Input
Amino acid sequence: MKKLLQFVIKFYQKHFSKKLARNCLFKESCSNYVYRKLEEEGTKKGLKAFYYRFQTCRVGYTFSFNTANNNFDIILENGDVLLNSEISESIELPNFSLEDYLK
Output
């Protein structure tokens, strides 16, 4: 089952991924993330990773300024926090710094 899922992911990446690509929130693409989870943790965890990404993909989010590291994070609709280091470069974060806030 694991090998079949990995084959489907590779087929998708080769033939459809670039055509269907949208602005993803996550730095690591969903297909790469799920493939990695399948490889590292097995079929069950890979399927859970797919379900999680499918459920959290652009359904709604808000920006949150993290004063601890002076960066924006994203709070997903389900309450999970996507740290600045996990956010895709294709997402335009607000141009703001703590110094701006304190002025």
